[in-house]
Specification:
The chain is α+β, with helices and mostly antiparallel strands. It has one domain: NADH Oxidase. Helix content is 36%, strand content 12%. The chain has 8 helices and 5 strands. The protein has helices at residues 3-9, 23-33, 53-63, 72-77, 90-96, 116-134, 149-156, 191-194; strands at residues 45-50, 82-88, 138-142, 163-164, 167-171. Strands 1, 2, 3, 4 and 5 form a 5-stranded antiparallel beta sheet that branches. 26% of the residues are buried.
Length: 204
């Protein structure tokens, strides 16, 4: 598939059919994720992969409020055969930039204008989503309820120095209706509304 087609076809899929996902495809998506840019080539990410019905069920039990009587969103998302939890490590970045070639002598978080550990892991996550489209799969990225994070950590023994930044589901998109999200109700903002060349606005 041409790259432009991959980008244009990418959307958040909220319901999947029961066809299993080839593990080699998941590995390919993860290999692409590790090609994402990272500050200082820190590569401070980790990916929890859940690709069996038992493990996927454990994930939803840990993160969802009511798997016994799910709403339409949860009912659709629970059909995903693969769940990936991308995690970022702030400690890895603070340690990397305290190394001699970076010139900082401390691990002070205030040096960072934005949390690049989260940003880099998010870019890696996008590569997973784009790979899914390229091979004919669907994917969705969504957040974890904050009050469920401790339970998720405990259930899957996620180390303290790694923070889940969200969740990726993968699978074959369902053909039946019911998975359309916000793009079905909201227009895509045109370039002239979001691109500011030379200056954001007038200076006078």
């Amino acid at each position: 598939m041409e790259f432009e087609d991959v980008v244009r076809r990418r959307r958040m899929v909220r319901r999947y059919d029961p066809t299993p996902v080839d593990p080699a495809v998941v590995d390919r998506a993860l290999a692409h994720a590790t090609r994402a840019p990272s500050a200082g080539f820190t590569q401070g990410w980790g990916f929890l992969v859940l690709d069996t019905p038992a493990d996927v069920g454990r994930f939803w039990a840990a993160t969802a409020e009511d798997t016994g009587s799910p709403d339409s969103w949860l009912a659709g998302m629970m059909t995903a055969p693969v769940v990936i939890v991308p995690c970022s490590s702030k400690a890895a970045y603070l340690g990397r930039y305290a190394e001699p070639d970076k010139g900082w002598t401390d691990r002070e978080e205030a040096r960072w204008p934005v949390p690049y550990w989260h940003m880099d892991t998010a870019m890696a996550s996008l590569l997973v989503l784009l790979t899914a489209v390229d091979v004919g799969l669907g994917g969705c990225f969504f957040g974890i309820p904050p009050h469920r994070l401790d339970r998720l950590r405990a259930e899957f023994v996620i180390p303290d120095d790694h923070d889940p930044i969200g969740v990726i589901t993968l699978g074959h998109p369902a053909t039946e209706p019911g998975s359309a999200g916000s793009p079905a109700r909201r227009r895509r903002r045109p370039l002239e509304e979001v691109v500011h060349r030379g200056s954001w606005g007038s200076s006078g």
